[in-house]
Design brief:
The chain is mainly alpha-helical. The chain is about 60% helix and about 5% strand. Strands 2-1-3 form a three-stranded antiparallel β-sheet. β1 and β2 form a beta hairpin.
Length: about 160
């Protein structure tokens, strides 16, 4: 399992165009954007690999949606200190299969507006009634999605 800070640093440097010779991917790496994209990385990993990619503990915040103290801390560090983010990304220990998940999310979201990313994030958990705060069990939320997907694939 990857560390949340490794994923956040990799996302940050790719979005800023500082990882290798690759060009920036078209969106500003804000704390909120990094938070949402890291959430989507965990979600994508759950639906494609049946396990979260990071160790992040996700909760629902009534205003922000899914949040994780680990991810917020890493995102704040990267946004405040770009050289640190570059060092962290250079030291990140992400496997090829983990990078494939992160790069998928980057390619899907990088050129999209924040509202689109927010809508995608919100589509992954029930929004019936008023939002409440509390723990977010991603593996449990992924089960109905996976069950529906398997029905579509088998038909």
């Amino acid at each position: 399992m990857a560390r949340a800070r490794d994923v956040v640093a990799y996302l940050f440097t790719r979005m800023q165009g500082q990882q290798g010779d690759e060009a920036p991917l078209g969106s500003t790496a804000t704390v909120l954007r990094l938070l949402r994209m890291t959430y989507l990385v965990d979600w994508r990993s759950l639906i494609t690999r049946q396990r979260a990619l990071t160790e992040a503990q996700w909760e629902v915040d009534a205003e922000l949606g899914p949040v994780s103290p680990e991810v917020i801390g890493a995102a704040l560090s990267c946004v405040r200190d770009e050289p640190l983010a570059q060092r962290l990304a250079g030291q990140a220990k992400l496997s090829d299969s983990e990078l494939k998940v992160v790069d998928f999310v980057l390619q899907a979201c990088a050129s999209r507006p924040d509202e689109w990313v927010t809508q995608l994030v919100n589509s992954t958990f029930p929004m019936l009634g008023p939002r409440t705060s509390g723990p977010l069990n991603l593996p449990m939320l992924a089960k109905p999605y996976l069950a529906q997907r398997s029905l579509l694939m088998s038909g």
